Every structure is written in structure tokens, then in C-alpha cells.
Amino acid sequence: MTHQTHAYHMVNPSPWPLTGALSAFLLTSGMIMWFHFYYTTLLTAGLLASTMTMFQWWRDIVREGTYQGHHTSPVQKGLRYGMILFIISEVFFFAGFFWAFYHSSLAPTPQTGGHWPPTGIFPLNPMEVPLLNTAVLLASGVTITWAHHSLMEANRKESAQALSMTIALGIYFTYLQMSEYSETSFTISDGIYGSTFFMATGFHGLHVIIGTTFLTTCYFRQQLYHFTSSHHFGFEAAAWYWHFVDVVWLFLYISIYWWGS
Amino acid sequence: MALPLRPLSRGLASAAKEGHGGTGARTWRLLTFVLALPSVALCTLNAYLHSGHRPRPEFIAYPHLRIRTKRFPWGDGNHTLFHNSHVNPLPTGYESS
């Protein structure tokens, strides 16, 4: 028997799960060494190891799927389940930060003035840059849908154009948020308001950067003819992740920026 | 023992047809240029017009703000990551600018 008689993917042995676990340990212990002892070597090693693991692991998946044909229908179905479960886990991650925000803002303590926002906090006007950020992400949801339909209709030029517009909008959002962070009169050290605001929006911003990177990878893969009009799960996974990031922002905008102001 | 071929879900001819209510690429391209991008442009204009520098709040040394239970692991440990000396006071008050 020189070939498999089933449609599943028996993955070849790979070192990346081990290097990933080692890099996770380096990252966690590295953060502790940095925060408590101002020592950054472990953290730097962890960042390098995790970046290399991600690059090589995902490169191998592209090789297995696009070049070696291992991503049959049942395999793709498994990948879809995997991405959906991952996004659900991220929903729970953000749920924690929203819990913290509502816990503190629904019953403001006397120590902060007995009201929300606390005394001395001057929140951002939700109708200025935060509204723009909302428009930017919603627009990027429209452009990525255009890109997906163009891809399914085998229109190379338009799917590249729409995907690049989505990426540009993601970069615009990140730029706007970074400039907002520099302009706020409150900081992360300004009590519970600062903590909840910057933890929630900060992790969201990190996810926007991750999503933008994922979309950029899809752009280069599309240019290299990796996708077909009926098989492009990498693109769909990126699109799902991007919509998730957009929805988290909508919750942030309504809860923290609007109701919380 | 060949696996049955998955029938193509959309033939070439149906790629041009956009289904009831029109949800093909053409529709989303239209939405992009007629709704999404103009909204971004309008909101950009709105944010820019309202962006003038406001007078900064007076400094009052509230104990629940500017918390420093542990120094930050960068710089002098007393400045936040996106510190802007014009609008962010230190625990002791605004810096010279």
C-alpha cells in the first residue's frame, strides 16, 4: 500500500508544536522577568521563537494544502470547525474585559466619586474619532465582502483591489487609534477607568493588527495564485476573523465609548 | 475505490447571475464606493473639523488617579507608554510644557 485510502490528512511529524510550547514558556517567564526585574532577554527570545514558530508552521500548512493537495473536503471541514472554535475562545477572552468594565461602571465606588466616568476623568467624545473608527471598520467589512465575492467570481483584479482596500482601512484604524492614545487626557494608570479602557481597547487594537497581518498574507497568496474560485479557506478564515474584530469594536464603541461617557 | 466527485456548487454561467436581491461582487463594489467609503470620508471630515486643541483640565491630585503602585518597566518608570506631556499630568502635576 503506497497511498492512503481515506480522505483525511495524517500530518507528518513536525517540530513546531514543541517550539511553540517553548516560546510560550519564554514569553510568560520573559514578561515576569521584565515587569519585576527589568530584564528583557527572555522576553526577546520568546518573541523571536514564537514569530519563527508561527511563520514556519503556517508556511507548512500552506505547503500541505496548496501544493500537496492534502486539504480535501473533510479536512477543510475540520479546519472550519477549528477556526470557529478559536474565534469562540477569543469571544470569551474579550468577555472577561467587558465583564470587568461593566462590573466597575454599573456600580461606581465612592472612592472614584460614586459616578461613571469617575471624578477627574474626561472621556473622548464618541462622535469624533471613535465614530470615524466605527465607519472605517464597517467599511472594511463591506470591502472584504466585495473581495470575497470577486474571488468566487474569479475576478483577480477586483479581488486584489478590494482586499488591498480592506488592508488599507485596517491600517487607517490602527493609525487613528494610536493617535487617539496619544491624545487622551487619561492614561492606563488613571484608576479603574484607565485600566478597563486601555486593556479592552488595547487588546482589540492588537487583534486588528493580527487581522491586518492575516489579510496581508492572503493578499500575497492571492497574487501567487494559491486560491481558486471555489477553494480559498485561508481567505475565508481571515474574513471571519476580520468580521469578529469589527463586531468586538462595535461592542467597545457602544459600551465604553458611548454608554460609558 | 475512487471517492465520489463533489459536484461544483456553481457553474461558470451562474457566476454572472447574482441571485435574488443581488448579492454578487457587483453589489458589494457598489456599496463600497457609494456607501462605505463616502461615510469614511464624511466621518474623517467631521473628526478633523472637531479636532482643535481644547484647554487642558486643571490638575487636582486625586488619589484614585495617576496610580503608581509599581514603576513602569521602561524609561524612568513614571511615564505611561503613550505619555503626552501636554495633556497627561504626572502624579505631581503637569510637566513644564
Based on secondary structure, the structural category of chain A is: mainly alpha
Q: Order of SSEs of chain A, N→C?
A: HHHHHHH
Mind telling me the C-alpha Rg of chain B? 28 Å
What global shape of chain A is seen? globular
Topology:
The complex is a heterodimer of chains A (261) and B (97).
Chain A (H helix, E strand, L loop, with lengths): L15 H22 L3 H27 L5 H34 L22 H24 L3 H28 L7 H33 L9 H27 L2
Helix pairs in contact in A: 1-2, 3-6, 3-7, 4-5, 4-7, 5-6, 6-7
Chain B lengths: L11 H5 L8 H25 L48
Membrane topology (chain A): Multi-pass membrane protein
Main location (chain A): mitochondrion
GO cellular component, one term (chain A): mitochondrial inner membrane
Based on the model shown, name its key terms.
heterodimer, A: 261 residues, mainly alpha, Helix Hairpins, Four Helix Bundle (Hemerythrin (Met), subunit A), 2 domains, 75% helix, B: 97 residues, 0% strand, transmembrane helix (chain B)
Can you put this structure into words, describing what you see?
The complex is a heterodimer of chains A (261) and B (97). With 261 residues, chain A is mainly α. Chain A folds into 2 domains: 69 residues, Helix Hairpins (Orthogonal Bundle), CATH 1.10.287.70; 183 residues, Up-down Bundle (Four Helix Bundle (Hemerythrin (Met), subunit A)), CATH 1.20.120.80. Chain A is built from 7 helices and no strands. The longest helix of chain A is centred in the middle third of the chain and has 34 residues. Chain A is globular and about 75 Å long. Chain B has 97 residues and is mainly α. Chain B is elongated and about 60 Å long. The N terminus of chain B is likely disordered. The chains are: A mainly alpha (261), B mainly alpha (97). Chains A and B meet through helix 4 and helix 5 of A and helix 2 of B.
